[in-house]
User: Fold this.
Amino acid sequence: MATKDFSVELDTQALNALVEKLLDKRKTKPLMADLGRIMVADTMLNFRGQKSPQNESWKPIERAGQILRDTGILRNSITYRVNGVDEVRIGTNVEYARVHQYGYKYIAARPFLGFGPRATKKIDKAFTNWVDTLDD
Assistant:
């Protein structure tokens, strides 16, 4: 059987223009802020549902009430900060947050920060919307 040549011609002008727009870091700061807001809101949903970002229920506690919400200090401390034009940090300054996120000795891990399917879907949508605005 004889092989036939196969070729594809691409007009890379439009692709190159999009890459140039994506590399224009001055326009990424609003995206970073959107991602920060998404992650803070998603973390609040983790507290409300008492589940990890991967939708796994937190280990029960001995006291009455909701898990990790005795005073609300930890939940209310979750913030984001945009650094420059290409970085956003989500976190807390509460000293004991690490213990709850990762666990320690006899304290079970109850992760509240992270990327799960719900956050990933929202981030993907925000990125797509941001790319669409580059045509403006």
